Amino acid sequence: MKSILQAGYRSSWLWLVCAIAAPACAPLAAQAATETVLHNFASPPKGATPYAGVIRDSVGNLYGTSYNGGAAGLGAVYKVNTSGQLIVLHNFTGGTDGQNPHAGVVRDSAGNLYGTTENGGTAGVGVVFKVSTGGNESVMYAFTGGTDGAYPYSGLLRDSAGNLYGTTYGGGTGDSGTVYKVNSMGVETVLHNFTSTDGAKPYAGVIRDSAGNFYGTASQGGTDNMGVAYKLDSAGNYTTLYNFTGAGGSNPQAGLLRDSAGKLYGTTQSGGTGAAGVVFKLAP
């Protein structure tokens, strides 16, 4: 009889402890984020229509580009300091300096910024530029629209030697776009010409692994003309990793993310079961 009473007591005690602890054990409600507007692009002389995101330095300053706005209405490179003040570092004029930067910038250890413009330059088909810490812009390479490429929508990848890597949407041998390198002296080398069958019209840039291989996407081309994911090895050998077919997504406009196991992740603009795009993973 005593053991039955003790068992009942233990059961009641456990129930009471669980009842008291339950609120503490319940999942916490998601906390809403608090937004602070650091700058409104409401004054076109300070830029307008920023397509690209920003990068941040070690003290909290932000750097980016605007596609329009600026003194000439053709885009700008800007800095937002820790007080939220926007400083225009360069106003694009539409001349040889370029115009309409679609992508953001990368930064070296000395604080210089590097990026691309979709248009402008000597041939009007885009440039690779550098903006110094003092706001002086210099054109590292101006595309001609021929085999060297045209219309670089993508941003840049910079290595430790100062080489810059990116893609062009047009130009190349068949006007299907290129993967290119611009060295620190401003000399351009085409690493790959897209042929349409292996991909075409890349919007996004490239990422690189520790062995020097590049990975990216092309928004069109491939076996179904719905875009591809590709690899370009350090020797310049090109491999189509995946041809998008529609059911698994189509027309990827963004680049790729790679994990330590070699898996690649990305998105497509369209395709999938609802024809509204997908998030995908590619296994090696």
Characterise this structure:
- With 284 residues, the chain is mainly β.
- The chain is 8% helix and 30% strand.
- The protein has one helix spanning 2-25, and strands spanning 55-56, 62-66, 76-80, 86-91, 106-107, 113-117, 127-131, 137-142, 157-158, 164-168, 178-182, 188-193, 207-208, 214-218, 228-232, 238-243, 257-258, 264-268, 278-282.
- The strands form 5 sheets. Strands 1-2-3-4 form a 4-stranded antiparallel beta sheet, with no helix packed on it. It has a 4-stranded antiparallel beta sheet with strand order 5-6-7-8, with no helix packed on it.
- The chain is globular.
- It starts with a helix and ends with a strand.
Overall residue-averaged pLDDT value: 92
Radius of gyration, taken over Cα atoms and rounded to an integer in Å: 25 Å
Residue runs with pLDDT of under 50 for 5 or more positions: 1-9, 13-18
- What is the percentage of strand-forming residues? 25-35%
Helix percent reads under 10%
Looking across the biggest beta sheet, what order are the strands in?
A: 1-2-3-4
Compute the number of helices: 1
Which class best fits the helix and strand makeup?
A: mainly beta
The succession of helices and strands, N to C, reads: HEEEEEEEEEEEEEEEEEEE
How many beta-strand runs?
Answer: 19
Describe the main β-sheet briefly.
Answer: 4 strands, antiparallel
Query: What is the general shape?
Result: globular
Distance between the termini: 66 Å
